[in-house]
Amino acid sequence: MTSGLINVLKPPGMTSHDVVSFIRKTYHLKRVGHAGTLDPAASGVLPVALGSATRLLEYMTDTDKSYRVELTIGYETDTGDDTGTIINNAVCAMPVKSEIKKILSSFIGTIEQIPPMYSAIKMQGKKLYELARAGITVERQPRSITIHNITLLQLDDTRILFDVTCSKGTYIRSLCSDIGKKINCPVVMSFLVRTHVGDFSLDNSFTLQEIENNPPVALLPLDYALGYIPKIILTPKLAQAFQYGQNIVDSSITVSVSKQSVLRIYDQDHSFIGIGQLNTDTAVITPIKVIKLE
Fold this sequence. Notes:
By secondary structure, the protein is of the alpha+beta class. It contains eight helices and 18 strands. It has helices at residues 16-27, 97-105, 128-133, 172-183, 208-213, 215-218, 236-243, 255-258, and strands at residues 4-10, 32-34, 43-50, 65-73, 75-77, 86-89, 109-113, 122-123, 126-127, 143-155, 159-166, 187-197, 200-201, 231-233, 248-249, 262-266, 272-279, 284-290. Strand 8 (122-123) and strand 9 form a beta hairpin. The longest helix has 12 residues, at 16-27. It starts with a strand and ends with a strand.
């Protein structure tokens, strides 16, 4: 069975699920999933996992993400982007460049953010966007997110173009709305492209046509996105025990690695065989995900 990761360049107009369906048909697989949903109108990096790699998706969601964003002032929609229904208009004057830079910089750090109604967060047993489409608005609790950096790229009378790097769980539409509040003007997110998800970047992504024309070329190793997790190589005996799902003790683990509770596990051929949980007190490694070598 084909297993691995694909750095898909999602085009605007497709849902993330549409991309998964395309990959399933292209590679003739059922086990396909994605990390980090992109709005249908947005484009950019969408990591997709095939086969055994789907079991590793949970380790790809904690990584930081980067976006290029265009914000347009003067009107507001129910969705927060330019695909929604306009709910507010206003004549606004764009602040000067120095003021915009100051406003953008004020968001850097750990901040509280209220998720938009048009999101996949579940409340009352339903996704928020399902409630929104039914005309129901519910109170959402703020969530802590981290904005690592914001860089102003361009500015004109109605639009602000900027790059942002942020933690998981950040809603760029909500960020734009909060920027609008500081500008004292209704705004929408009028353009969004995701440029990075951890080790996946726009520069090495593949379009759907490129994937369709040459499926094997787009396939990345299972452990491609796990570089942030410390790596250990096991002896043949320990590797076999790990693959049988047995707890193991490896006295070769260094002090720096032992501070980490999760490890990437490899055999002596440097083949990735899974994820282990390390007990730092006993040096016992418990298999969490065992990957069958193919």
